[in-house]
Amino acid sequence: MSQFRIAVVQPRTAPPPDDEANVAAAVAWIARAAAEGADFVCFPETYPGPWRMPATFDPIPPLAEAAARHKLHAVFGTIAAIDPARATAHNLIVMAYPDGREPARYRRTHPNGPWLYTGGKYWEFQYVAGNDFPVFDTVHGKVGLAMCSEVYMPEVTRALALRGAELIFMPAGVNKRRLWESWRTLLYARAIENLALVVSTQNMVAATDRGLALIAAPEEILYESTVPGMGVVEVGLDRIRSLRAGRDGVGSSADCAAKQGVLSEQWQRPELYDVILPRPLPRAAE
Fewer CB under 10 Å: which end of the chain, C or N? Predict the structure, then answer.
């Protein structure tokens, strides 16, 4: 299908200890998104929750059921407990499917843990990084999942794009404060350098929060909002696919606002990867 709709939800989020209330709110947002013709609905990182260990509820079954009932894809955040006694957990972005199949999961890979989610106002768990970059087929195109400050690690979205992801969801956590401008710039940059659609949003916890909901295409930002609520945007992947299949040339800037073919052999030199990041030679056995 060449055109489809993405609903980006920037919710008023109930922080812990009241985060379980977000589950019912998320189910209601899914119904509203479906009523507006959305094929995907994207929620923030760790929305609806839980935000802390021990994880006292699991939002995946009710959101997966709502996605199947309303026939759309729902992208949302939660944590997956590893060892409750040690409070270890993966941070997940989950995508529920309209046909009710087992939801897709991405375990945050960057940075190294566990400092990222300890000692703060909202999160409290011993984060364990994942090691995989899965991509997922949908009827609309191939989807990659990432999250939050991984936007500062271009390797994450590049890994997804090289695996074929055309639509990359990168939901974020909370108010960006002084990082807002660089965060917005990097979301757009990830779309430009990977010739992908990049979608993000965040939790609005305090009345003074400045939101960062955004859909970026390689050649323009299609949607952005700093306030609570939901935006529904019609998008397509035909232009993405054309830019990926094309080759950059001397006159390309007359017709293209992003460089064509940057994932192809015209630009990529995988034989230099070990030069870019030299690996130590393995030691011979004693």
Answer: C
Give percent helix, percent strand, percent coil of the chain, each to the nearest 5.
30, 25, 45
What is the model's pTM?
0.95
Distance of CA 264 to the CA centre of its chain: 23
pLDDT in tens, 199-254: 999 999 999 999 999 999 999 999 999 999 999 999 999 999 999 999 999 999 99
| Burial (CB count within 10 angstroms: exposed 0-12, middle 13-18, buried 19+), residue 10 | buried
| pLDDT tens digits, one per residue of 21-39 | 999 999 999 999 999 999 9
The SS3 assignment for 71 reads coil
**Per-residue pLDDT at 105:** 98
**What would you report as the CA-atom Rg of the chain, rounded to the nearest whole angstrom?**
19
Across the chain, the runs of DSSP E, i.e. the strands, are 3-10, 40-42, 73-83, 88-96, 104-107, 126-127, 135-137, 142-145, 167-169, 197-200, 213-216, 221-225, 229-236
Q: 38 vs 56, 129, 175, 199, 265, CA distance in Å?
A: 30, 32, 26, 14, 35
Question: What are the structural domains of the chain?
Answer: 3-276 (3.60.110.10)
Three-state DSSP state, 236: strand
